[in-house]
Fold:
Amino acid sequence: MKLSWIALTVSAFALSACGGGGDSAPTSDGTSTQKPASQTVSGVVATGLPLSGAAVNLACASGSGAATSAADGSYSIPVNGVSLPCVLTATGSDGKTVLHSVLPGAGSSSSNATVQITPLTELLVAQVARQDPAQYVAAFGPTTTVSAADVSTAQSTLTKVLQSAGFDASSVGDFISGTISAGSGQGYDGVLDKLQSTLTSAGVTLTDLSTAVASTTGSTTAATSTIGTVLAPANSACPALKSGDHRLIKFSDGSAQVVTIDATTLTVAMGASSYQLTQGATACDFSLNDTGSTRVLVARSGLAVWTNGSGSTGTLSISMPRQTMDPSVVNGAYNYAALSGSAQGEYGTHNYSKGVTTAATNCSVGFPCAVDTKSPYGHLVATSDGGADWVDDGASAGTVDFHAYGFQNAQGNIVWIATMVGGVGVFAPQTTLSVPAVSTTSAFWQSTVSSTGLRPVSEDSHTITAVNGSTVTRTFADNHTDQISYNNPFNGLRYRPGTKVCTNTSGVATSCKETWQLPLGGLTLAWNGSPFVTPSTYSVSFSVNKPGTM
Structure:
């Protein structure tokens, strides 16, 4: 990696410290004082085409500057005596394109520096900072440290991951100071053109890719599989549907198989058979030409619900792009729910530290939640199929309680689907759900599994008609209403009590089924009723939001 300007900075700084020359001016007593050296930070702002008229801002550990890019994307910022490191932000004249870059180092600078500002430097900053570049720049200050070694390591790692995921940027020797001729289609600029076409084919934005780069931690294999999903070709009408291998997990027993989808030709390879997907009247609603005409509903996260038939012979499965997840990076609080099998109706929380469960709260429909005090609990262990086993560390030490497959989408959201005790469970990081505003509308497809079997897919919609703190009133298409509270009983869950918080289609107050909901990026899992009575009243609903709605 060429970082010659850093060497120049260090050399010039050393000469200055040793009295090795430089401008000086006499004082009234005949001595001299050192004049602050004048430096220039310059480069090109480009996305493939030059970004002209962009506002370029430089912020250093000490010192700052600004300039406007020329028609060819070039900029030049004169500065005096700045202290490294520095970050740069280029904002397009339309305010929509925002790119970042970084100038590593430490201490005073007395040499010129070339700093390009491109989508590649945006990704590099995300890799260095492990967070959104805009947030990193906003928090940048005098105590922020960025060494040339840090940047070199980050670029090497990023280049390898991108290359393994199908995008090769290795020909650009240095993302920061490499020579670029914006609009030429050659060298560095040609790589930027290729990146843009790759993003377009994948149906994602640079922000999506940057978010994935920043949020993907753990092994290179895990990072590559996540970035590979983000950059995989997408269906033009339904960008959430990605080409590649997908895990298809059957709801009734947790059995899993791998299917291969070509999102552009809409073909599905399943075992030795090949099928065709046909899009319905709405994007992300597909039917498969298999026996039973399987309906495939794709959520914006990339998860999908597959329903075949109805009643006691109907089947429902959930799919996710096949990825390798590193359980050692599972940290913090997670919500979990056992949706089918002998543990159905159980839910709660797990806290993790590097894949080891450190605390737990157990709940079950119809019963109060209770903190699990029987530690140690268990830990996740990576398996050869890219998933993980949860191994008991307590009374049944060494026993595998469930097997799980993980998936991280372009927005950095993670979900694990587990095959557990003859059924399916799900666990996902706790997040604080935003309460929707009044007039927010959602339209969705929905299917429900109960003791009587699978109900056919139906369509519905609702509008938020009132908000009271964390509780919202929803008015549905047929004019019935309910009230549901957000982040209850835990962050990331929604809860509807089984009291008179609903009205029927005539506006008369009525009781509702007590319901818990776990939203997963456009796919909401909801469970209610009791599996402990005969006949069972327990059911699980799967709602997939239509494109363009919350």
